[in-house]
From TrEMBL:
InterPro entries for this protein: LysR-type_TF_proteobact-type, LysR_HTH_N, LysR_subst-bd, WH-like_DNA-bd_sf, WH_DNA-bd_sf
Organism this protein belongs to: Aeromonas bivalvium
Name this protein carries in UniProt: LysR family transcriptional regulator
Domain HTH lysR-type positions: 1-57
Keyword Transferase: no
Top-level division of the source organism's lineage: Bacteria
């Protein structure tokens, strides 16, 4: 059945029986007999024979759309059984949100490609939430747990957020002494900007403060916010892996370091690598995921004064 489905998929992709036969190195009569046998097995016509163009019937379109996933799973199963000593090869599509991709992933890609020269990597920096099936993505890097129960995930690092500002901004506007004072400052906000934003602060076991924030710059991605903060435009609450180098060089300074700050009320979301496949994960996906876990260790905030 799977071999017949492969020929059907090639016929549709090629647009004719003869071109499909050339692509598969088969005789045209063999392709025709295979499609006839598949229609007989299914008990429905797959193509509209009365038209000059090659057009799937409604049943044929339905069958092919659902069969493609079976072919992909079969291929992944076969690939997952490769001997461990064989280097993985083949295409790999990865989606990662822009700021993490630029700051943490891009510097590692040459090493990954050198380690696995047979893998053909296609990577997209996307701040929208991709659908792994619809967008044909093998691996995605996201903030927060996936809502799709069919997805698997491995943790890369905890997304600790830090409140920072440039020395110039603090010199002009003063250093906030309490979380409540932040409401009077210009805040650089990560998000959609369509609803009221809050930042959340906690200290010790009991102290919890929710602060409404507003400002003149909002962005889904963190890169524009980081550049604006470094230029003295406002207070910034952003992931430690984005601001740590600026803290180290002194272009940003910690604000309220004795408080744990977060854009989320209950927790700092983790950064996860998300994938389908489970036990039968294709080898190039497994190699990429293992590489990320190996090369992206948990980040530690090194600025004195930050709470552990």
């Amino acid at each position: 059945m799977l071999d017949r489905i492969r020929i059907l998929a090639q016929v549709v992709e090629s647009g004719s029986f003869s071109r499909a036969a050339r692509a598969l190195s088969l005789a045209p009569s063999s392709v025709t007999r295979t499609i006839d046998s598949l229609e007989a097995q299914l008990g429905v016509p797959l193509f509209k024979r009365s038209t000059r163009q090659l057009v799937l019937t409604e049943q044929g379109d339905y069958f092919l759309a659902r069969s493609v996933r079976l072919l992909e799973e079969a291929d992944q199963l076969v690939q997952s059984l490769q001997p461990l000593h064989e280097a993985p090869s083949g295409p790999l599509r990865v989606s990662v949100f822009e700021s993490f991709g630029a700051a943490c992933l891009s510097p590692l890609l040459p090493e990954f490609l050198a380690r696995y020269p047979g893998i053909r990597l296609e990577i997209g920096f996307d701040n929208h939430l991709v659908d792994l099936d619809a967008d044909n993505v093998d691996v995605a890097i996201r903030i927060g747990r996936p809502t799709d129960s069919g997805l698997h995930a491995r943790t890369l690092l905890t997304n600790r957020s830090l409140l920072v500002a440039s020395p110039a901004y603090l010199a002009r506007h003063g250093v906030p002494g309490t979380p409540e004072e932040i409401a009077g400052h210009n805040c650089l906000i990560r998000g959609q900007g369509r609803q009221r934003q809050h930042w959340y602060f906690r200290q010790g076991a009991q102290q919890r403060v929710r602060v409404p924030v507003q400002g003149n710059l909002t962005s889904i991605g963190g890169t524009p916010l980081l550049e604006a903060a470094r230029a003295g435009c406002g207070l910034l609450l952003l992931s430690s892996w984005m601001v740590q180098s600026s803290l180290d060089e002194g272009s940003l300074l910690p604000v309220l370091p004795l408080w744990r700050a977060s854009p989320y009320e209950h927790s700092d979301d983790q950064i996860l690598v998300v994938f389908r496949g489970g036990r039968f994960l294709k080898p190039q996906s497994r190699a990429f995921i293992d590489f990320l876990v190996e090369r992206i260790p948990p980040l530690q905030t090194r600025e004195p004064g930050w709470p552990e």
